[in-house]
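Design review, sub-item: ligand-bound model
Attendees: FS, YL, KQ
YL presented the inputs for the D-MYO-inositol-1-phosphate complex:
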Amino acid sequence: MPHSAILNVMIKAAYRAGKSLKRDLGEVENLQVSLKGPANFVCAADRRAEEIVREELFKARPDYGFLGEEGGARAGTDKTHRWIVDPLDGTTNFLHGVPHFAVSIALERNDAIVAALTYNPANDELFVAERGKGAFLNNRRIRVAARRRLAESIVACGLPHHGRGDLVLARHEIAAAQAHYAGLRRFGAATLDLAWVAAGRFDAYWERDLSPWDLAAGILIVREAGGFVSDLDSGDAILSKGHVAAGNETMHRELLRLMQEAGKEAARHAGRDETGDLPIARANQAQSSQP
Ligand code: IPD
Ligand code: CA
Ligand code: CA
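KQ shared the predicted structure:
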């Protein structure tokens, strides 16, 4: 399926940014042993990649709006179109020389994602989709996996880490997943987690505390691969709520059921005080001890 002119512009931008990141990855490996470590360098690599993407997209469509993780939002004169860009998704992987990271670009038209790509320059895997035209990996059509049994399936997830996210809720969600799936995977790049669901490598994926640039491209790539994507409340407010569940129809439905049950369980637990009693019991106790 030939790509549209706009998708070719996005691919050119991603390849140019990918080339810069691949060069920087080599340097990151050298910096691992340096006292200062690669942190500052990676931030610079991140910003450089975003500038390259913005430059290429701006050249082709100077009037479109732009939302990038590093540079923030820039309004365009054309209010119906906006680019949503994560120049380096999987920064922590990149920081450690782990070749699992991506450039991700989505085009939004009237609040709907119409074109999307996620490109991992380390293994040269380009995932693309256009609305109504299917999803592709390096020009080969991709479909979500057909598995229906959780016990044969692997689910990918994000994990809240130091100071970010609800650790108690995460523990309940992970325990629920451990009890039902054949395996859990935490690969550290949300855009690739969604692309791998689209390619049938992961059967399902869920995560919270994400930003629009982590999610936008992957939503269209999964849907164009025949998959289902929603927020964790079974709604379509994925970008605004910052949480996501994805998979084929059965996997998506089952994942939502498990995560919503885990949420109730976590709430029940949170309601228990340090004596382990529920607030109601505590109130009753207090009442019954009244003279
Ligand atoms: C992060 C990655 C990670 C996810 C984090 C994101 P970044 O993006 O996608 O997998 O768990 O929530 O912030 O910071 O590497 O672009
Ligand atoms: Ca990201
Ligand atoms: Ca990023």
